[in-house]
Amino acid sequence: MVSAVADTEPSLTSGLLSVGFDRFGNEEDLVRDPIQHLFQVYVRINQERAAETERFNNGEIQDAESTIHAAAKRVFKNMEDGASRESSNSE
Questions:
Q1: Rounded Cα gap, residues 23 and 60, in angstroms
Q2: Model-level pTM?
Q3: Which residue range is the domain that position 30 belongs to?
Q4: Which phi and psi angles does 83 have, rounded to 5°?
Q5: Would residue 53 count as lying in a domain?
C-alpha cells in the first residue's frame, strides 16, 4: 500500500523532493529563493502523492510501481547506491 503524506519515511524525503523538482521545479526560482522554492515543491509533490494515494486505495490506480511513492523510493535507492541523478530519473 502507498503511504500517506503524514507517514512519509524519513529516507523517502530526498526521493520525494527529487521527483517533485523534476515535475514542478524551476531553476530560476531555485536560484532566487532556494528554501522557499524547495518547500513549495515538497508541499506540491506531497499533495499530488496524497491524491494519488487516495486513487490507489480506491482502486483507480492498479500499478503501485507507477506511483510517486514508488518513484521516490527508486530515486532514493539509486542515491544510496551512488547512481547519478540522470540514471535515477531515467527509470
A1: 22
A2: 0.77
A3: 10-79
A4: -75, 150
A5: yes
